[in-house]
Amino acid sequence: MRVSIELELSNNEFEHDYRRAFMSLIKAAFQRESDILYKRMYETKTDKPFIFSVFFPELKGEQNKILLVGKRLS
């Protein structure tokens, strides 16, 4: 299964560690939708059967360890 989400951002800056925040969103979604699946995936140390990526189509560069990402995210 493939899921794609497109968002419009209110802030055009992200820290370099933005992937951790997105992983927290994915984890919270699993917990909200299926307590059984969440416990099976996160209460034991197992490999997770998914990957994710974040794409900033309007990426402008970096300034003082802050990514200037524009207003859109996919």
List the SSEs and their pairings.
Layout: E1 7-8, E2 13-15, H1 18-33, H2 35-42, E3 61-63, E4 66-68, E5 72-73
Antiparallel strand pairs: 1-5, 2-4, 3-4
Strand sequence of the main sheet, in spatial order? 2-4-3
The percent range for helix content is 25-40%
**What does the average pLDDT come to?**
87
Biggest sheet layout: 3 strands, antiparallel
The dominant shape is elongated
Give the terminus-to-terminus CA distance. Answer: 17 Å
Low-confidence stretches: none
Order of helices and strands: EEHHEEE
Protein structure class: alpha+beta
- Please report the total strand number as a whole number: 5
Radius of gyration: 15 Å
β-strand percent reads 15-25%
Please report the number of helical segments: 2
Account of the protein in words:
This protein has 74 residues and is of the alpha+beta class. The chain contains two helices and five strands. The chain has a three-stranded antiparallel beta sheet, with no helix packed on it. Strands 1-5 form a two-stranded antiparallel ribbon. 3% of the residues are buried. The mean pLDDT is 87.
